[in-house]
Amino acid sequence: MPDETTDPQAVPPVPPPHDAELTEFRRAWTELINAAIHARTRSGQSHGELTLTQVLLMEAVRGLVEPSVGSVARCVGVSSPSATRMIQQLERKGMVARRRSARDERSTVVGITEEGERVLAVRRRALEARQRRMYDAIRPSLRPMVIDILHDLREAMDDT
């Protein structure tokens, strides 16, 4: 009897509904991520060509008290050497400045400059405008469900 797995005439088995839903989830997820990447590309990277990770790093610096390079790296999810390189790049662009910690002179802390604050404010306003356009594009009856789904996705990402 021929092996069905190698028979070129064999009809492939139909996946169970769960597998079809998982396949559709993967497709939708990929499309969403690609749309987000393309939206970033369309919006361009003005203001000194900051990357998303650099902006996240700057936002982390703003949110921490006496942020060290290590604490910023942990907050953003990058290695300390990567954070150091990004901070050096941001220093050259005038977005951040390093100084000795007032609490421990052996430690260096990072701060946002006036120019960095200005750039973050411009980027934040642009992001909020894009978010508003996306929100407005969602049917009002679906908005609460979309918000719940976004929260669920966030929790699922934290759990995995």
Task: Give an account of the 3D structure.
- The chain is mainly α and 160 residues long.
- The chain has one domain (46-160): Orthogonal Bundle (Arc Repressor Mutant, subunit A), CATH 1.10.10.10.
- 63% of the residues lie in helices and 6% in strands.
- It has six helices and two strands.
- The protein has a two-stranded antiparallel ribbon.
- Helix 2 packs across helix 3 and helix 3 (69-76) crosses helix 4.
- The longest helix has 27 residues, at 17-43.
- The radius of gyration is 23 Å and the shape is elongated.
- The model has no long low-confidence stretch (mean pLDDT 85).
| Tally of separate domains | 1
CATH class: Mainly Alpha
- Bin the strand percentage: 5-15%
Fraction in helix: 55-70%
Give the low-pLDDT segments. none
**How far apart lie the N and C ends?**
44 Å
Question: How does CATH name the architecture?
Answer: Orthogonal Bundle
Topology:
Layout: H1 17-43, H2 52-63, H3 69-76, H4 80-92, E1 96-100, E2 108-112, H5 114-137, H6 143-159
Antiparallel strand pairs: 1-2
Helix pairs in contact: 2-3, 3-4
Describe the structure concisely for a colleague.
The protein is mainly alpha-helical and 160 residues long.
Question: What labels would you give this structure?
Answer:
160 residues; 63% helix; Arc Repressor Mutant, subunit A; single chain; mainly alpha
